[in-house]
Amino acid sequence: MKILAVIQARMNSTRLPGKVLLPILGKPILWHIHHRLGKCNVDEICVATSTNQNDDKIQKFAENEHIPIFRGSENLVLDRLLGAAKIFHADAIVRVTGDCPLIDPDVINEMIEIYKNRQEIDFVCNTIQRTFPDGLDVEIMSTNFLCRLSDGLREPFMREWFPMYMVEHCNQFNYVNFTNNENISQLRWTVDFIEDFEFIKTIYEELYPEFDVFMMKDVLNLLQSKPDLVKINQKYSANTSVTIYDDLKKLADFKNKHL
Do β-strands 44-50 and 175-177 pair in parallel, antiparallel, or remain unpaired? Predict the structure, then answer.
């Protein structure tokens, strides 16, 4: 079985354009995500970006770092990920997004073990019942499952937001939701706004001298010792992507009914 880690990334973020290449300790966010995935039990790591010319910068970064890259649809994320899975001959993919530089290799490895031991399942995730900080989101999906989704989801909106479709229709699938011992999903560790970047940058500056790759527990210990750090991006709630999805879905439904 070949497991491919896919970093989903593009430059055209509406809230913080170019965030995936913002520097932390002299290295772009994408570099740090790739470095952390290097501690995971995967066979290969790639970046999946779009064919938009703005994403030429991501391709240049990947080529300079000798990271395999796939370029596909900018908005149809399902098509892009499936294209990466096929071109790299993966049996399953580990999907992480380019705005999550605190992803935890220990969490991912535990989820990979579950997937390998339960090969009859469609996917393993930690996003249906959320118990991890926002920014540690992971899905491990079989390529066959992605193909089935691709066959069934015809609307462009759902092909873009297919992870949310998986959450909303989870009762239709054979999956395992991986949970933390404590529900700490209220914590915001993703990068959508400049304050998020400042928070993450501070975490790295605090922990990196001691840890090459620090884990979730290390961040929690730091926040316990320096609780004021959470104030940096406290104005934003966790899981803003869910709110955006809900708003866009309502708009799409309105257009389908009235326009």
Answer: unpaired
pLDDT at 209: 82
Q: How far is CA 146 from the centre of its chain?
A: 16
Q: Do the beta carbons of residue 238 and residue 188 sit within 8 Å?
A: yes
DSSP 178-209: ---SS--TT-B-S-SSHHHHHHHHHHHHHHTT
* pTM: predicted TM-score of the whole model, two decimal places: 0.92
- The structural domains of the chain, ordered by start, are 3-186 (3.90.550.10)
Are the C-beta atoms of 133 and 184 separated by less than 8 Å? Answer: yes
Task: Give 240's pLDDT tier (boundaries 50, 70, 90).
Answer: low
Q: Amino acid letter at 251?
A: L
Q: For all residues of the chain together, what is the average pLDDT?
A: 92
